[in-house]
Write the structure tokens for this entry.
Amino acid sequence: MFFMGICVLIVSIERIKGGSQMKIGKYSLALLLVMAGCTAQPAVSPSSEPTVETGNLTQTAEQLANVLVTQLGATSVQYALMDNGEVTVSGQAGVFAKESDQALSAQDQYAIGSVSKMFTAAAVMKLQDEGKLDLDQPVAELLPEFTMADERYSEITVRMLLNHSSGLPGSSFSEGFMFVPDTTAHDTFLENLKTLHLQADPGAYSVYSNDSFVLAELVVEKVSGQDFTSYLRTQFIEPLGMTRTQTSVGNVDFNAMPKVYSATQPQRALPADIVSVIGTGGMYSTAEDLCRWGLAFMPSSSMLSAEALSAMSVNEAKKGIWPTEQANSIGYGLGWDSVELSPFAQAGIQALSKGGDTMYSHTAFVVLPQQGLTCAVLSSGGLSSYNQMMASTLLEQALMEKGVISEALPHYQLPTTPETVPAIPEEVQAYAGLYADSTSLYRIDFTEEGILNFTIEQMPDTPTPLTHVGDGQFLLPSPMTNQLFSFEENGGHTYLKVEAVTEIPGLGYSATTVYYAMKVEENPLSDAVKSAWQTRSTKTYLLISEDLHSQIYEMILPIAPVPLSSFAEGYVNAHQIVDENRAVAIVQIPGSGSRDQFDYTFFTQDGVEYLQGAGDLYVSQDSAVKAEVGTMNVTLNDQGHTQWLTLDPALEGKTLTVSSDSQGVFVYDATMICLYNCVTDGEKTITLPSGGTLGLAGEAGTVFTLTIE
């Protein structure tokens, strides 16, 4: 299974392709602070076959799905390919559950994550077809309830929501990832926005935004006069015969879905993956149903006009700040992650793609409209980028069988290391210095031998060397992913550009070009400001505002460390410190490099220090109560905030029994790995670890009786 953590390689596949991620999608403050800006990948053992065997499409699909299951962390995989309205390939791989022999089927539903955004985009376009809104109309005209603490909000148009250029923070909703159906994120979203500021000027550049599609969902409801689920059902789902497609507030049988598992304890089954923000990631479907959904984007579509389909397939990202590129898997249309998916685009074939990742489920949806082809690959475990490789490989073979192409599509390749390393031009050496993305700082320096040293804040003593190959480009080769670094100035900023070409034996190919980091300056602090942040560096701040059924308690650490950087002056988690109590997000990177940014604000109330950020509230660890042997009662305060208790190492091996009307009981070890979650594991006696933390969550006034013996 994959896990969150610091990358050993500089740029992982998902860090490069992070645009599609809902999983990396509720970038709550906790996740942003714990992660180093990368997603570590599962170890990949090279296939015994260097390439996919080309038999018939069904055999190819079986081979590809087997790679996802045996090498890339998927527990189960479901896939389908449709050719001009006929499902020609459909199958499954892996297991329904590790602890049972229940068979997988084509009817099994999966959480499709951000592929849900295509339903939202289509709903908006249908309303435009009907003359009920205009893409370039300000959102505030359609939704007067929408306001922010930033006057620029009035400039946001409907188009900007669909092409990710609204400037909205990213994922500012609370309780979006749950283990039970919930509407809190939807119901409170506009209220949350009232106190927030934009992260960029509307329309300046496209950076992946879950918030934009939550707002688009609300626009659809306002303009149509229907709730979002009803609108999708009557306008798209029923007309297309998508009998296995529902929203998270529909009648989904979550217990009948293929099982998902803990990332840190791979044999520990968890409840179904539930995303409560429907328009940005809260839909459930099957591979065959998603192929039917692909019919909505064909030239013969009865769902949307030709004008709407054409508008959706324009590369909107290139209208703002965007890197120059030769090949890419990211290029936002209206809803789409890419409207020029490599390698199809390089052969003159339009391929539209959308990926989706929740915490535990992953989907790739690829449409070749002119050829009448759609492929969908869904999985529990794994990653959507791997699923997209499978879909692309399968579609490429389908094109060969149809006679559209006579040979394999050419793959974009990066230069190789030269025998003689050329000198680095002085104008390139001027790019040395400090860089940042939304979560990490980096340093770049050059040597006389033609080497670029790239150093990440979390590994300051281990720079990664890249070799100059000429023209100010620097190569980092590896067995699967070659990366090419260069520099571009755009929109008044200096960017580190990274091109990555990945080839996984037995699976497929991907090429991506992004601005990875932005050049920033040192930020000298006064003694008073530095002292305030140094004091916080020794503490941890604990999440207190999330519902007990939230997945944050399970998958994303419910803590927020705020270490004052020793790597560069005046920064904390790549945010620039402005005074004793505030640090602000400053990077402006299109794609995913500055997604989900939030300012940090500290305040003290009744002698207790709190941290506000990312729509969540955290409290200093100093407020945590010490758990004692014997029986004690804990009552949640009038705000219903989560109560935290520390577990002394001396309690190791003792048993904890909790009596309460609430299931909100969480036990973590000393590294904050969740060992027990009553919501997912049920009520039972818990053996305590050596040190750690106990969390108690529920409604205001809930009483927990703890017995440790």
